[in-house]
Amino acid sequence: MGPKSILKSSAVPADAVDARKPPVNEQHLQVALQHANIIQDQKNVEQEILNATLELLEFPPDSKADPARPSPSDAHKFKTLVMPFQPNDYDALIEERNCADLCGYALCPRPRKKVPSASKLHFVDSRDRGVQIVPKKMLEVWCSDDCARRALYVKVQLNEEPAWMRRTGGGQEIEILVENTEALEFALPLRLKSKNKVQGELKDEDGEDIAAAWALADEALAELSQERGDKDSMPRTELIKAKIEERTNVKTPSAPSAETTASSAHMAIEGHIPKSDAKKTKDADDDEEDNDWDD
Amino acid sequence: MDSDRRDNPAMIRMWRIYRTAKEMCMDRGYQMLEEDINISLAEFVDRFGKEGDHEPDRSRMGFSAKPSEAMLIKYTDPPTPKVPNPQPQIGEIWIDFSGDENVGLKQLRDFMQHLVSTSYYSGILITPKPITGMALRLLRGSTQFEDGPRGGVETFEEQHLLVNITKHELVPKHVLLSKEEKAQLLERYRLKETQLPRIQVTDPVAKYLGLRRGQVVKIIRRSETAGRYASYRWAI
């Protein structure tokens, strides 16, 4: 151990402050917690996106899957995984898939297109834009133009806002460009089942109408709460309180006594007495006299 | 180097990178052979050149290194009552030269799995181009990543190993301190580690030495007035 310090131990005054002003420290704690939670949220979302990317890297599981007609389970999984993405995360996913020599569209199992020549830049002749010079890399992103269209159709729907800042939690449903729309819509069994459970008793002859009505109402309510920004998905403590507290015990102001002004007059700078000095004096003569002039 | 045929620039480039990688391992304290470090270009071409064309064959260039005794001691925590004989926080390293142009998540994960399956403690991947953003993100979290090796994975771009930066005259000597030396230093100057000056782990020299967060390096500079001046930095 090092030699004992000759300085006054600072533990006692610190404790005294704690006891006197708990609300301040509590507020500090809350502020710290709030910010820590925000950072934790960010980390969680980043991890989630990384895991989703890792999973989508080996997508789809079936090597003969058709990107135009994905199986319902694949489509559903893709949609849920891609939900927290920002457009640049999606770009990163495409880049990763290209590094693995796959087509950039995550529902397409085919390898990406290879341009036979070795030159870095290529001429591309398109009808609407004329001849353009395009880097080779850009040409090798997709397996076909259809896949490019499908992938970019998803990208434009992604939310620019990072997922931890989205007020409604996950984000809205993402549509994908498919040919077998009916099959996909038919296959949303999870949600239908849970609703049936709740309204199970009502399933009579006209019970179905009632169930449908209930479902509509639920949907409308959910939409409304989304619009209002109700944070049921991410409950957070708010620092700003809506409730206003009145200060109850307000003393009548008293005129300053001549004594106090005299004792601190020499400290004043243009009539203002610096706080740090005031505190020091107070600590120093705490045990001698109790004529506090700043209470 | 006076050879009758003109050497392939790619070959010369790779030769320099290879030598810097070897020197880096030696400076970190791994056991290295003297003749390996001072390998001549002709020998390098012989060993790693592809048949026919004189392109370097990156897949054959990978090598492993064992930590030396001194390094093992340096990386071992001082014994405590709870842990009477602590294990060194270092082990055999595998240095790999990536043949793929673009290194993404897939390649990095393959590399990590390779390290785990061959039970190397840590690894270095040297890539021709910068790795992708997602792969960087994976690396950052790889200490918690259950698939990765215990000692973590570092990546270097080939371009950054062309020259050994520590040999530049403006780069002072950096010496890593062991846990024990660090404790002595802090006691000698009655400091907390947070009161030391800092160095980022992404600093080029810190990356070269493979510093980990919390380690302290001694930096020895020449000084006109004092002859030699030592300062200490805490890696964050």
UniProtKB/TrEMBL annotation, chain A:
It catalyses: O-phospho-L-seryl-[protein] + H2O = L-seryl-[protein] + phosphate; O-phospho-L-threonyl-[protein] + H2O = L-threonyl-[protein] + phosphate. It holds the Pfam family RPAP2_Rtr1. Residues 225-249, 272-283 have a biased composition (Basic and acidic residues). The keyword Metal-binding applies. Its EC number is 3.1.3.16. InterPro entries: Rtr1/RPAP2 (IPR039693), Rtr1/RPAP2_dom (IPR007308), Rtr1/RPAP2_sf (IPR038534). Residues 80-167 form the RTR1-type domain. Its main location: nucleus. It is found in: Nucleus. It comes from the Eukaryota. It is an enzyme of class 3 (hydrolase). Keywords: Hydrolase, Metal-binding, Nucleus, Protein phosphatase, Zinc, Zinc-finger. Residues 284-295 have a biased composition (Acidic residues). Residues 1-23, 225-295 are annotated as: Disordered. GO terms for cellular component: cytoplasm; nucleus. Putative RNA polymerase II subunit B1 C-terminal domain (CTD) phosphatase involved in RNA polymerase II transcription regulation. Belongs to the RPAP2 family. This is RNA polymerase II subunit B1 CTD phosphatase RPAP2 homolog. It comes from Mytilinidion resinicola.
From TrEMBL, chain B:
Keywords: DNA-directed RNA polymerase, Nucleus, Transcription. It holds the Pfam family RNA_pol_Rpb5_C. SUPFAM superfamilies: Eukaryotic RPB5 N-terminal domain, RPB5-like RNA polymerase subunit. One of its GO terms (cellular component) is RNA polymerase I complex. It is found in: Nucleus. GO terms for molecular function: DNA binding; DNA-directed RNA polymerase activity. Residues 163-234 form the RNA polymerase subunit H/Rpb5 C-terminal domain. GO terms for biological process: transcription by RNA polymerase II; transcription elongation by RNA polymerase I; tRNA transcription by RNA polymerase III. Its main location: nucleus. Residues 11-114 form the RNA polymerase Rpb5 N-terminal domain. Gene3D superfamilies: RNA polymerase, Rpb5, N-terminal domain, RPB5-like RNA polymerase subunit. Belongs to the archaeal Rpo5/eukaryotic RPB5 RNA polymerase subunit family. This is DNA-directed RNA polymerases I, II, and III subunit RPABC1.
